[in-house]
Design goal:
Elements: E1 2-13, E2 16-28, E3 33-37, H1 44-52, E4 59-64, E5 67-68, E6 80-83, H2 95-106, H3 111-124, H4 140-152, E7 158-162, H5 170-183, E8 190-194, E9 206-211, E10 214-219, H6 224-228, H7 236-240, H8 245-268, H9 288-295, H10 309-326, H11 328-346, H12 365-404, H13 412-420, H14 425-455, H15 461-485, H16 489-501, H17 503-507, H18 515-521, H19 526-536, H20 544-550, H21 559-582
Parallel strand pairs: 3-8, 3-9, 6-7, 7-8
Antiparallel strand pairs: 1-2, 1-4, 4-5, 9-10
């Protein structure tokens, strides 16, 4: 039983209260198929989110199976299915892969049991002929069916659907409604569908009409025209505009007992929930595939044990790699950066570094002129080394930004949906961090080896690669945090690019910053620490004298200091990303 008692939901906007839900009180019995209809902005989706626990009611109570969820309780992820209006499937995966991934994330089923769940739900939604098709080629109606299939893997007892028929042609809309009706016949499942459409109301057990946050009707579909004094349901919305929402609500409170009595009589007269009861006479018979699948009742509780951290981590990690290799645009971009950026660096020293000239005390005026030329040459070579190192660093920060700026923001709604189904933020963030760590290692090691081979930069190769790994990792982690905390992938990308753009001028490698500003800015600039750390590893070489004379900013005394600061950048970035992943961000 789902019950709402005097539920209110209020927002503060511009110092004024905005009442989105007012005094909502309803009861929905198990095995029930209910529509929530009403004009745009009447509170339908808000109510659905309150039921799902995505929004918390300002006052009132939500009860599920007699438990007051408003007092700290919550729906178990496997009990709840929530199908949003937006697509929750990745375009590069097939139907079968999407359903199987959902089953792995939400259950602990494996082997034959996992195959049985996947086959069952694909059959239930009538997509057996499309199981090998990628999501990108599916029609709107097929994507709605896939969204339902991904929710059915845990056999939820409460299935909430938000405008799942919007944008569909009339026949596809009716097919989806018929499918939802069939799904409500089994497992004592309550199916609630939010819709703006007043078509196909005959397929529902009950219809709830909302107007400006109020419930103004909840009863059988056939009694609606009588209550609103209209000839057909399509005339209800114009009729609502003739009275205030408060008046309609008070009228409904006065007369609702008679309509609820009729609804109870209709529900009682049918077979009990869980039985394969026939659809109402007015319903066109569903497809044979759907009916045969729905007629099979698997063992109670099958697949209801939530997946653990490690299972969720590996499922997400391998799914990310599958998406990476199937997205040709993304793959080609990464390959272009991986190959092209090191080549850009070595262009400035294709013949390697010139030998550092000796400078000894002059004995004659002619010797003094030669020594001055040698000193100038040393400075030029030192400047070249500094420039090559900084060029590597800046290009790797750009790679880091490209790695992660859109990583979470671009799939935020999918993540939120999977989180509602039981995915833990730690498993999600860990999978992202490990995927990006592989990219960071490949990019940084290749950059270091390639540049070192062609230019012969002085210093320990291990120290140089360590600094490249850390700066790439730092920028990747920071941009991942930006991605986790921004509202859109566009905002995340823009801010990440700005962050990279400030690395060079604020590093002090080209122009020295004012002393006070340098102390404030330098700790925050990853490029400075990687650049400075690499130069510090060159102290034992003869080149360092020229480097020291060429650069306008002091080089750190030891590369270990740079390594510690960059490690702190990585840690702070991951913590900020964790905070962003913990925060709900629904559209």
């Amino acid at each position: 039983m789902l019950e709402l008692r005097e539920v209110h939901y209020t927002l503060m906007r511009d110092d004024a209260e905005l009442h989105l839900l007012r005094d909502v009180s309803i009861k929905v019995k198990p095995g029930h198929f209910m529509a929530i209809v009403g004009p745009s902005g009447c509170g339908k989706t808000t109510l659905l989110k309150v039921i799902a626990g995505l929004l918390f009611e300002t006052s009132g109570s939500v009860f599920w199976r007699g438990e007051d969820l408003s007092e700290g309780g919550d729906l178990q992820p496997q009990e709840l299915g929530y199908v949003p209006q937006f697509s929750i499937a990745f375009d590069h995966l097939t139907v079968e892969e999407c359903v199987e991934t959902a089953a792995k994330l939400r259950t602990r089923a494996g082997g034959d049991e996992l195959d049985e769940i996947t086959d069952r739900v694909i059959a239930e939604v009538g997509m057996e002929s499309s199981r090998d098709k990628r999501v990108a080629v599916l029609s709107g109606g097929q994507k709605r069916r896939l969204g339902l299939a991904m929710e059915l893997v845990s056999r939820p007892h409460l299935l909430l659907c938000d405008e799942v028929t919007s944008g569909l042609d009339p026949q596809s809309e009716r097919d989806i409604i018929q499918l939802l009706h069939t799904l409500s016949m089994h497992d004592d499942r309550i199916v609630v569908n939010v819709t703006h459409s007043l078509s196909n109301l005959d397929l529902y057990d009950s219809v709830m009409v909302m107007h400006e946050g109020h419930v103004v009707y909840h009863g059988t579909p056939d009694a609606m025209p009588h209550y609103f004094s209209v000839e057909n349901p399509e005339a209800i919305y114009p009729r609502l505009a003739k009275r205030t929402a408060g008046d309609w609500h008070e009228s409904w409170k006065k007369y609702n007992d008679a309509y609820y009595e009729k609804l109870d009589h209709r529900l009682t007269a049918r077979p009990q929930p869980g039985d394969a009861r026939p659809a109402p006479p007015s319903v066109t018979e569903a497809t044979d595939t759907i009916e045969s699948a729905a007629a099979v009742t698997p063992p109670p509780g099958a697949g209801h044990i939530p997946a653990g951290f490690l299972r969720q981590f590996f499922v997400l990690f391998f799914r990310r790699w599958k998406l990476f290799f199937r997205d040709r645009t993304q793959l080609l971009l990464h390959l272009a950066l991986l190959i092209g950026f090191p080549i850009l660096v070595v262009i400035f020293a294709t013949d390697g570094l010139p030998a550092m000239p000796d400078v000894s005390p002059p004995e004659t005026i002619e010797d003094a002129k030669i020594q001055a030329e040698h000193i100038e040459e040393r400075v030029e070579i030192g400047g070249l080394i500094s420039g090559l190192v900084m060029f590597q660093v800046i290009l790797l920060t750009l790679m880091g930004s490209n790695n992660s700026a859109r990583e979470i923001a671009s799939e935020r709604l999918t993540y939120e949906k999977e989180r509602l189904g039981g995915l833990t933020p730690m498993a999600y963030l860990s999978s992202k961090a490990c995927f990006l760590a592989v990219l960071v290692v490949i990019q940084s090691v290749w950059m270091g080896l390639f540049v070192n081979h062609f230019t012969g930069l002085p210093g320990s190769l291990g120290d140089k690669i360590e600094m490249l790994l850390l700066v790439n990792g730092a920028m990747t982690a920071v941009c991942l945090a930006i991605s986790a905390n921004m509202k859109s992938p566009e905002e995340a990308s823009l801010l990440s690019i700005y962050l990279v753009g400030f690395q060079l001028p604020l590093s002090g490698a080209v122009l020295a910053l004012p002393g006070a500003l340098e102390k404030i800015v330098q700790p925050l600039i990853a490029a400075y620490w990687s650049w400075s750390g690499q130069l510090a590893s060159m102290r034992p070489s003869q080149y360092f004298v020229g480097i020291d004379q060429a650069v306008p900013t002091d080089v750190v005394s030891d590369s270990g200091i740079s390594a510690s600061v960059l490690a702190a950048h990585i840690l702070c970035g991951l913590v900020a990303a964790w905070i962003g992943c913990k925060r709900h961000r629904w559209a």
